[in-house]
Design goal:
The chain has ten helices and eight strands. By secondary structure, the protein is α/β, with parallel strands linked by helices. It has a single domain, classed as Alpha-Beta Barrel (TIM Barrel), CATH 3.20.20. It has an eight-stranded parallel sheet with strand order 1-2-3-4-5-6-7-8. It is globular, with a radius of gyration of 18 Å. Bound molecules: NADPH dihydro-nicotinamide-adenine-dinucleotide phosphate. NADPH dihydro-nicotinamide-adenine-dinucleotide phosphate binds next to helix 9.
Length: 259
């Protein structure tokens, strides 16, 4: 799983998504994160196909939306995603959100069967906190990935450690705080020290914590900037200063209370 991908939430379907994905692939990204909810799965697929990059070189993730939970619903939703993308398989299929009640457990059973049928290379979850993960722990197949909001401003140490101990990859969504903390003066001071942008510091921090990152951008210059994070290292004292920015604030949503 490439450690850096492009997230395409909130990029309008059609040319805008196609152009962003194409720009990312041309820059060297080999990982795209979409979802049924985003309404742009088909455009991701078109861009991959038109880029000339072999399908097997691109890691494509999509997700099961809340209205499709339950065994049958999940199987059907997955088939519909595949058909929208005109693909034989996806690389990673995630439960997008831990909806209430038993349906989410049935959905996990469906994902296991999809995986066993060879239609996706890996299965995982998103927005799952410890209680949700515990619920499916006894299954023959456990999630390989948990995609959750993560940045220095939401440093979820406990769940990171929990996942790490169980071999679950933590994938950080909204790793750039949706742009809302890029002006933080403490972050800017560290960025100036390394001659990097605040966005690059946030991404590098995530890499050094072992996260997979999926920043969203529809601007080619930002897409390039966000990929340019593999040639420097944040020193321990600055990592500690970034860790201390934690304010436990969710930019997206807080799944902790989902029963
Ligand atoms: P991000 O933290 O990735 O921030 C995106 C924002 O930052 C956009 O406004 C973008 O604007 C801006 N930006 C990107 N690069 C830069 C840069 N270098 N400098 C300044 N601004 C920049 O937010 P998202 O919430 O979109 O999260 C990323 C991805 O994670 C989503 O696209 C989606 O794939 C996934 N996600 C999953 C969720 C889930 O429930 N599983 C929930 C939320 C997100 P511009 O386009 O102009 O560059």
């Amino acid at each position: 799983m490439p450690v850096l991908g492009l997230g395409v939430w909130n990029i309008p379907a059609g040319r805008a998504t196609q152009a962003s994905v194409r720009s990312a692939l041309d820059t060297g990204y080999r990982h795209i994160d979409t979802a049924k909810l985003y309404g742009n799965e088909a455009d991701v697929a078109i861009a991959v196909q038109e880029s000339g990059v072999p399908r097997e070189d691109v890691f494509v993730t999509t997700k099961l939306w809340n209205t499709d939970h339950g065994y049958k619903g999940a199987i059907q939703a997955f088939e519909e995603s595949l058909s929208r993308m005109r693909m034989d398989y996806v690389d990673l299929y995630l439960i997008h959100w831990p909806v209430r009640g038993p349906a989410r457990i049935e959905s996990w059973d469906a994902l296991i069967d999809i995986y066993k049928a060879g239609k996706c290379r890996a299965i995982g979850v998103s927005n799952y906190m410890m209680n949700h993960l515990e619920e499916i722990r006894g299954n023959p197949i456990v999630p390989t990935v948990n995609q959750i909001e993560f940045s220095p401003f939401l440093f979820q140490k406990e769940i990171l450690e929990y996942c790490r101990q169980r071999g679950i990859v933590v994938e950080a969504y909204s790793p750039l705080t949706r742009g809302r903390r890029l002006n933080d003066r403490r972050l800017q001071a560290i960025a100036a020290k390394y001659g990097r942008s605040p966005a690059q510091i946030l991404l590098r921090w995530g890499l050094q914590h072992g996260l997979v990152l999926i920043p969203k951008s529809s601007r080619p210059d930002h897409i390039r900037e966000n990929a340019n994070v593999f040639d420097f290292e944040i020193r321990a004292e600055d990592m500690a200063a970034l860790d201390a920015l934690d304010e436990q604030h969710h930019m997206a949503w807080d799944p902790t209370g989902a029963p």
